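Following up on my earlier thread - several people asked me to post the actual chain instead of describing it. Fair enough. Here it is, all 78 residues.
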Amino acid sequence: MIHVDDVMWCGDEEMDCAMEYVQEKFTFGKIEVENFRFCGKLVRTIDGDVHIDCAETLQRINPIALAPGRRTQRSEEH
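Reply from S.P.:
Thanks for posting it. Predicted structure:
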């Protein structure tokens, strides 16, 4: 997965070999394994499974107040 200048990958030995080749061609700032942040999400490996958590991001989202009549408005009226 690529986002701007961040790259995340997973796979078997064949993928590792492919990414070693890519790393020979491009400079990587740092490589993190198993537990790291990617695009604001916490990525963890637990018992071989990958878990992605964005709880911290959700905590920073504020509710949006809508007028009571907004639900009945058609989308073209917004």
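Strands lie at 2-3, 6-7, 35-38, 41-46, 49-53. That should answer part of your original question.
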